[in-house]
Amino acid sequence: MKHTLVTTMDDGPSVLNRVVSLCRQRGFAIDSLTIGRTHEPHVMRLTMVVDGTRTAVEQVIKQLYKVIEVRKVSDLTEDQTVERELALIKVTSKSPALRAEIMQVVDIYRARVVDVAQSSMTVEVTGPTDKIDSILTLLKPYGIKEIVRTGVVAMARGAMAGQERGREVARLREVS
Question: Model pTM?
Answer without folding.
Answer: 0.78
